[in-house]
Amino acid sequence: MNDIRVGGWTELQELLFADSWNEELGLYRSNFAFRGCADVDEDLSTSLAKLGGGASVLEDHLLRNFRKYATGDAVPVDSEWNWLALGQHHGLPTRLLDWTYSPYVALHFVTMQPDRFNHDGVVWMVDYVRAHELVPPEFRSELEQEGANVFTTEMLAGVAEKIVELSRGSERFVLFVEPPSFDERIVNQYALFSLMSSPDASLDEWLGKHEDLARRLVIPAELKWEIRDKLDQAGINERVLFPGLDGLTRWVTRYYAPRPTRRPS
Q1: What is the pTM of this model?
Q2: Are 99 and 35 a contacting pair, CB within 8 Å?
Q3: In a 3-state reduction of DSSP, which class is residue 225?
Q4: Do the beta carbons of residue 133 and residue 125 sit within 8 Å?
Q5: Residues 141-167: pLDDT tens digits?
Q6: Taking a C-beta distance cutoff of 8 angstroms, is the pair 100, 190 a contact?
Q7: How far lies 263's CA from each of 43, 225, 230, 260, in Å?
């Protein structure tokens, strides 16, 4: 994996937006999905994998009972993909992993826990356009037909009605999926999910075989306070990313908490 240790705020901006110029469009449009973690040692394990046990069996039980007891109109269209996305959004252990189109939203998740500021953080960057060049032909065809770079849940349902159908072949692959706009949180976080073709497949292992598709920006612990202050000034905070009283409370609590005396370097 291509690890780059960031030297400062200015270098961080260059690295986050590197390779984002799209000559065909004449615009800056990054093909990278971003994921921020407070600890550099955190891997890309899904909540389903962290639950332990047989992932395939557990996934079926979890999703079936979530659909059984959730409100019937909780999803815009009754499909496994929409229920999976909704479950992930509300904390159900799934094979999905949270990503964002926004590098600054990713930085928020690196710096949202002041008690972890003594640890280096990390921003994962994965080129989802090139990753989708490696999916089976029927999935590539769906993207080409829609003129899209990422999947929606409706597009996935058009190729595979059931999640289990992703495991039909022997080759493992990753998909990037935009969830329906269930609420403001998904919209404000510019959210998308990664999805491995098998519930027990590891994105870390897959990226290990395709290292040219990804990079990791290591955020030094000593840089976290500066990033946090500048994100707050730019309006990237819990109040915006988690609309509602809970997000407001989290923002106020963090923003006004005492911090160590520090001086700019």
Answers
A1: 0.94
A2: yes
A3: helix
A4: no
A5: 999 999 999 999 999 999 999 998 998
A6: yes
A7: 32, 10, 15, 10
